[in-house]
Structures are given as structure tokens and as C-alpha cells.
Amino acid sequence: MKLRSAYLASALAAATVIAAPASAQQSDRVTLSSMGGHVMGNPLAKHKLTEYMSYTCNHCAAFEAESHQQLKTNFINKNHVSFEIRNLILNPIDLTAAMLARCGGRTRFFGNHHALLAQQSTWLKKFQSVSPEAMATMNDGTVPERLRKIARASGLDELMKGRGYTAPQIDACLSDKVEQDKILAMTKHATVTLKLTGTPSFTLGGKPLAKVHSWGALQPKLAVLPQ
């Protein structure tokens, strides 16, 4: 999906890496990178894979569905690849979903991330069916107020309630300026520093992988990495 974000902004001091407790599988480990992205697997792994993604990108949803188990089993749990998710925000509903994905801290992130992408077609379709009159009000109010309107109109709030979050918790997540700044800083890094123009895009060891935007294109590159 091509970039068309109106939400780019500069922000974010480096976030502290938070170590996860040891677990039986490396894919159960979740830490935060210095940029605030969520890292699955050994944060000291030899090969660091990063996805820059959008929650409104159908190719990102396809990548998640196709790679979810294979990436964990064949690469992350073998301890030589870590996998980080960073945001490349394309539009206001994408920002809303990204804020909700971060609800509940690092241990809840990948579950939220997977659920949002698995149900993407449902909540996007609901948002796209909003009346023109209601859509005209989406840009009224503060940023948190706008995000709450989008969450209600799309059913993202109900999705999160189904995952055990209360309405006050959802509102608090959508109002969290610190988390918003992290998301926008990741987007700025992707577009300004790395010059990425679409989602999903990937870096390996911090270097963009040219013409790799799907699991089918990424998997062969991971398969030849030394363990």
C-alpha cells in the first residue's frame, strides 16, 4: 500500500529496552527496541528483522497470516533471528489501530497485533460504510477525541473489548501521547531516514530489503541466513 499519511511528526527520545523473562520458546519473549518497536525473540539474535507495517494495508494482513507460524517455528525459535514490528502510519484509522495494538504493555502487543490484522476486513468494511454526515465529523475535536470516534465507527473498540479491555482502558490507550509519539517517530524514521514508500517493508540488520513486500519474497532471504 502506498504512503499517504497526514500524521507525520517528529518526536521520541530513545525508549529503554525492557527484558522479558526467560521462556521455553524464543517467540514468547517480547522486548522493546530503542525506537519503541516490539521485538519477538532473542533481542541479541545475530539477525534482526524489522517489518514496517500499516494496520489498513491488506498486504500487511496477508503477510501476518502467511508468516505467523512459519516465522516463529523456523527462524525465531531457532534463536538466530529476532522480529520487530514498527509502524508506518498511512491514515487516521491506521493510527487508531496502532494505538490500540499497544494497549496493555509489551506482553499483550503481539496478540493485539495478530487480532487486528486477522479481523482487518471486518473493521475496515464497517468504517467504510459510515454515513457521509458522520464521516464529516471525524476531524472535529482533539486527537484523542477523533481517535475515539474512529474506534467506535469501525468497531475497533468492540474488538478490543472482546480481548478483555474495558472502555476506560481503551480510552486511556487512545489518549496516550507518549505512545502516539513513538508511533509517529517510527513512521518518520521509515519515510525520512529509510525512505520507505509502502507497506509492508522490511529491514535486515537495519538495511532495507529491496523489492521485498511479502512472505513469499522474504522467506528465501531468511532461509539462507547462517545460524
Automatic annotation (TrEMBL):
Thioredoxin-like fold domain span: 35-218
Keywords tagged on the record: Signal
Gene3D superfamilies the record matches: 1.10.40.110, Glutaredoxin
Record's keyword annotation contains Signal: yes
Entry-linked SUPFAM superfamilies: Thioredoxin-like
Protein name per Swiss-Prot or TrEMBL: Thioredoxin domain-containing protein
The keyword Signal is assigned to this record: yes
Cleaved signal peptide residues: 1-24
Organism for this UniProt entry: Parasphingorhabdus flavimaris
Annotated InterPro entries: Thioredoxin-like_fold, Thioredoxin-like_sf
